[in-house]
What does this fold into?
Amino acid sequence: MLNDISNRNLKTGVILTVITALYLIIHSCIIGRNEFFLLLNTDLGSVADIFFKLCTNLGDGIVWVLVAILFYIYHRKRFPLLIAAIIISTLITQLTKNYAFPAESRPTAAITDSSLIHTVSGVELHTAYSFPSGHTATAFSIFLIACLLIKNRWVVPVGFVWALLVAYSRVYLAQHFPLDLGGGMLAAVVTIFLSIGVQKKFDRKD
It folds into this structure.
């Protein structure tokens, strides 16, 4: 399967991810980073507060542990792909946060009128290192890996909606701008293709 990077699920997943990322980035530039954030950071009620507070955890780095367990059970020979994805995704996001866009302000620090921002009780709000969103990069990297390894067509819509909900939770919880989500999605696309390259090198050694 890894010999054909153009498999339909992965190709569709990448196209959806890139289009969504470009929309978020371009729209942020057109109407303004802060304005686009405030448009999407809408109070949807207490149920949504709880839902997105839980949903955002699906983009935590610890989720890679669950993915590793599934790899061990179903795709043990693809561990180089997984390890490469974890390392590459982390390097891209952290190097970008710390060196390309050092200490970029997050919404609660960049928008002076805090009354305009919807926040959720119990969520610790960060103020710096905003671009790109690491949670989004993780969620979309896992989504694209699933597109690569799972043949069923359902993986694309289900995985995309899951990754998109994780990404949106970062805006809903006032942790990131939509622009940051776009950056995280592009980081995921780069991650999957570089990881495929790593896996191919290991496959040739067998």
User: Anything to note?
Assistant: The mean pLDDT is 94. The two ends are 15 Å apart (CA to CA). DSSP finds nine helices and no strands in the chain.
